[in-house]
Predict the 3D structure of the following.
Amino acid sequence: MKNLTNSERIFLILNDICMVLLCVIMIYPVLFVVGRSVTPDVERALHPLRIIPRRFDFSGYSFIFSSGSNILNSYRTTILRTLIGTSVNLLLTTLMAYPLSKKYYPLRKPVTALVVFTMWFSGGLIPSYLLNKTLGLLNSFWVYIFPCAINAFNMVIMRNFFMQIPDSLEESAKLDGANDLVVFARIYIPLSTASIATITLFYAVFHWNMWFDSMLYMNRKDWWTMQYTLRMLIDSANVTDVATIGSAMDNIPPAETVRMATIVVATVPILCVYPFLQKYFVKGMLVGSVKG
């Protein structure tokens, strides 16, 4: 700081002020939602902008995790969908990206062109619904998994990452008697940790935030995803709309309390996962986008 000019000092001070204000703008909504989720209804009405309540009310969280709330079933569905869906996505994406990264594969260019074509054009909503209905996936948990088993963009990123790995490693392994499956499992997968972590984050966030397919394909309330239940709760004026039909729900908390508590419960898990994958995020995206 001693060797800086006055203009440089002013710039650094203004820059720090702008960063602090930006952090406040980004953190305030999160703290507001968390605070409102444990704020009593009377205090919420008297102090609409207060973040830290004077008294804490955890009735919203008690309702979410009670046996009569459909939110608990939705939470289970979303967790299962994220774990199973992400595992299927990673398996199929890497298995498809590996052969398409090989120059000696004869169908490499036409298959890659077909995959890229699906990024620009799709059949549309009605054909997708009719296809899932014909396959018997309506009102089935697998309607969350099979229609989105591979994302074309993520597959291209993985393919480009595989193309960065030297061919000499594969040639050396095959001279020692390794087949393609061994080369894929023992060479390409360990060397692709950054890209796999990035793709994992993409797929996990996609499954965790998805709600549209629940609205289209799922009439069974107990298999709604968390985000769709949250959407129904926010749009609804009555919390009983997300309670299991026929259940005896005593002391149902105010709708605003349940809304805020549901947002917190739906957001915290993905926030806990992101810091462990963030260090791979930039590296996986940059390396996977070098070649075409």
Observations:
- The chain has 13 helices and no strands.
- The mean pLDDT is 82.
- Residues 154 and 202 are 8 Å apart (CA to CA).
- The chain has two domains: 6-57, 67-287.
